[in-house]
Amino acid sequence: MEKLEKDAQIKEYFDFYQKKVLPYVKKYATQPLKGYHGLEDHTDAVVFRAIDYALELGKNPIPVIFAAACHDMARINDNEDPGHAERALPLAQKVMNRFPKRLTDTEKETVLTAIRMHTTGSQASDYICACLWDADRTRLAWERGYHEKYFNTEYAKKIASGDAKTYITRQNKILGRINKDQESNQTISLQKNKKELMKLYNRLKDYFKQ
Q: Which of 36, 56, 67, 120 could form a disulfide with 132 if both were Cys (CB 3.0 to 4.6 A apart)?
């Protein structure tokens, strides 16, 4: 797929998410709108990456959109919040029920599996789970360090092990955004701080060698 064609498709699918799916997610979610796991920050970015990853595989992004949109919708805080994946399942079902012609029964079950298992760190057996898990873990790789074992698709491995700012710049260009979303701001800030700390560490190391 040509890059410009793919970028146009990402924008089209992302518009479907924002205009059609997101209003129902907001209606049923307990998830905060803002914050490290905020619906309008983190989920927004995960949906974008999940669409990108699905298209790169040549797969239908629609089930992936629902999985990404609903994966954190039962969160009640930005901490560990154990059980939020399981609690999201009935809420995700409510969202999917609003779109009876968009998903097959099999796709609905796989979306629920993807949401249920997105916190486990296991490897995916289907593209819906793979795209959600890879999209959700990409930020962690940018912020805390890349580990190949946590990723499923080759394209996601390339993005997660690459430069966050380059990808985020592309994201903002495709979506026509002037300002970065909060997840992007957080990620770039953390990466900058890590680089500054490494510079300080190397200077101190050289100093003590003298």
A: 67
Distance CA(157)–CA(148), nearest Å, equals: 7
DSSP 56-117: HTT--SHHHHHHHHHTTTT--SSS--TTHHHHHHHHHHHHHHT-TTTS-HHHHHHHHHHHHH
The pLDDT tens digits for 62-102 are 999 999 999 999 999 888 888 999 999 999 999 999 999 99
CATH number of 3-209: 1.10.3210.10
DSSP 18-33: IIIIHHHHHHH--S-S
Enumerate the domain spans of the chain.
3-209
User: Contact, 118 vs 133, CB < 8 A?
Assistant: yes
